[in-house]
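Changelog entry: the CAAX amino terminal protease family record was regenerated in this release. Current contents:
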Amino acid sequence: MQQYTNFPDVWGAVLILFLQFTLQIILLVVFSGLEIDLQAGDPFWEGVLTLIPTVIIVSALLRYKRLDIQDFFHMSVVSIKSTLLVLGLPVALVALGSVILFNDLINLFLLYEPLTTEEIDAFERFTNSGFNSFMTIVLIAPVCEEMLFRGIFLRSFLYEYKPIEAIFLSSILFAFTHFSIYQLIPLFLLGMFWGWLYYRTRSLWTAILGHVLYNGFALMYDVLIDANAGDLPEDTIIFQSIFVHLFAFMLVGFGLLLLYRLLKLR
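Regenerated structure tokens:
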């Protein structure tokens, strides 16, 4: 039976994130000692540095809280298959529309504070390394982050705070731990959406699905943008037309409306 249901609270979560960061530093020191070439933005090593500390921390917390792994991922009486089949389409619509809107929101920040050449190179390496990029961006990062921020933090916060406060706090932590001023607002809003999904469905799988779809669409969107950029300089910022933005808003709006109606029936 689960114990320590409200652990961690928000300050406990901050300490856990500090521990995760410390484990990543230790791994970096070990890899450097082994003379491994760690290039900034290398998706393989980014994935390793995400996966190992998260698995260690989540496994320890599940054991400490005596939380069953099946209950950790899915508490709802509705089956996982039914949940994902019914909600998959509207979640995908929200994810696709959000990618378009948030990409241009980030571009607005980049107009005033452009990335350095080193940052551009690291980003290109992270997103354009084929299979390694796909594994880290679309699978490892979403699963690991949802296990920690929604599966551990939000689950515990819901015992300690009101639902809106719990979702808000977990989303703030999620946004700030990415250490990116450009992505702060998009990550916070995405965290709110995925947190709401988790709260309403009582299933971590819906949050993971939303995160996987968003990252997958974002990766494909970046590839399409690069393909259409032609011979433009790497630091060129490309905005979409107002019609594309309207279409994206329609996708998000319709997806949210459909989700609201479907979840209202549960």
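DSSP finds ten helices and no strands in the chain.
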